[in-house]
Amino acid sequence: MQYLKNLSYDELKTWLLEQGEKPFRADQIFYWLYQRAVDDFDKFTDLGLDLRRKLKSAFELSSLHIAKKLASALDTTEKYLLGLRDGNAVESVIMPYDNRCTICVSTQVGCSFHCTFCASGKRGLIRNLETAEILDQVSIGRQIGHPITHVVFMGMGEPLDNFDNLIKAIRILNHPKAFNIGARRITISTCGIPEGIKKLSLLDWQIELSISLHGPNSEIRNRLMPVNKKYPLAVLMKAVKEYIKKTDRQVTFEYTLIKDINSSDANALELAELLRELNCKVNLIPFNVSSVVGKAGIPASVKGAKVFQSILTRNGIKSTIRNSRGADISAACGQLSAQHKLL
Length: 343
Hints:
Elements: E1 2-3, H1 9-18, H2 25-35, H3 49-58, E2 59-60, E3 64-71, E4 78-84, E5 89-96, E6 101-104, E7 108-110, E8 125-128, H4 131-143, E9 150-153, H5 163-174, E10 186-190, H6 194-203, E11 208-212, H7 218-224, H8 227-230, H9 233-247, E12 251-257, H10 265-275, E13 280-286, H11 302-314, E14 318-321, H12 335-339
Parallel strand pairs: 1-2, 6-9, 9-10, 10-11, 11-12, 12-13, 13-14
Antiparallel strand pairs: 3-4, 4-5, 5-6, 7-8
Helix pairs in contact: 1-2, 4-5, 6-9, 10-11
């Protein structure tokens, strides 16, 4: 038996026709699934009993549940450990702001890319999440009362390593009969998989693309991100330039500042040269020290981050310094699940 949320809108209409049902029922089902985030077939009150019985016999409705919730005392951030049916767990983080609400979503259980500063990769890759398991993270956000307006795929896992399920989930997030979240409010963050970036460019969507860079050259990036040994910086940058040319979209580069590794004035100048003439911006991230990651590095100082930013600015590179949220609740991806095993 499969999850109902694994079906696209067109696949659901096809299934309904096969059952002798009218295809417009897909609109009603999508309404209950996504706009109302209802997790009980019996509450689909505008469907006949016979159709509800068919749905119950063919599909599972909910793919995960809340196993643990942490609420930050420092800000409004909430982190959820979500139990999957097979006993594994993933995480999502909800960040309410004054005029929007962002959810950080996972795409895999664990990760195969082993970035030194990321807790998710310490477990290795266990499996991809199904489309339903990706979407249910957003549904749970709505069930607990958050008006989710933005989705960022920056949780556990490498999104482009689960490409097909990711794209199917985004189509449903964007669908007017489902979540109806605008493409520009959806961000994919990748460690840098060139073939995945190329496939994204061919879709010609107006989504936001974020590249985890973290080093201005291959020597530093090899140290921090083993993926650079498979996809060297020059290959990644070629793919990014082609993406920008094809889509005419700005790309964000994520850059975690780690003292004595990648945060010197010389590193800033090298980064500016690397990104010169690209339609991009840099998101400078304070390094999040985690007991899970261990001795991966020491955060650059606030003063050091501002100096780094000023060098980028003087060299024509737009940048921001990310405001760290949820520091008291292990909000960085992978920290909570590494501390709690459901099996």
